[in-house]
Description:
Oligomer: single chain
Structural class: alpha+beta
Radius of gyration: 18 Å
Strand order of the largest sheet: 1-3-10-5-8
Distance between the termini: 29 Å
Number of strands: 10
Shape: globular
Amino acid sequence: MIRKFLIAAILTMTVAAGAWAQKDGSAEKKEEAKGTPSEAAQNVQLAASLAKYGYDNMNALSLIQAAQIVKENGIQRKDEEGESEGTVNQGDKKNGKISLDVNQLLTDATEYASGDKTLLALVDKVKNTASRGAVNGAYTTYYRVAAHGSVTFYTNFYGQSFCEAVVVGDGDTDLDVYVYDGNWNLIDSDTDYSDRCYVSWNPRWTGKFYIKVVNRGGVYNNMYFYHN
């Protein structure tokens, strides 16, 4: 029940923010979704959205819920190399924050709980919840994209298979995602005015594909990247 309430609340705020941005003239209509995210991709998106909401509003319950999703679905961090363009300025003024690290989420949730016994009990419950194995989980890569910079990941994908990638940033800038084949032909993209992106494609052959994330903002963006 709590999970459904949180999801509904986040979706309501997202729609409201999008409507305000369009009214203000600072955003364009989002591209029509290309494909349906897999369960793993949806879990990454949901956990990241809850984490962002929790940090933006100092909401302990949202961080606890994010930690629970990460742990129950075996979402783990993976160090994946990417080719970066641009220099990260550590002095950039940051507002947004995001994390998919269970320990960090629960530590911050404990702080935001301010001694609330019910919330602290939920923190302990998640801490003692067994983590699902990574075999059926999702591997996410944490990456810091420089202001007006980019990072390009290159991975081999099987032909005649469903491929997808998810990007969720910290909320401070707009991120765009582009997928190219081995010859740098554009395959798919998500270029709306947000830092939550989803792309999917069905390659006709097995080979290398490039996934490029571009930061359109004036400060760096701490993002999580997932591909199947």
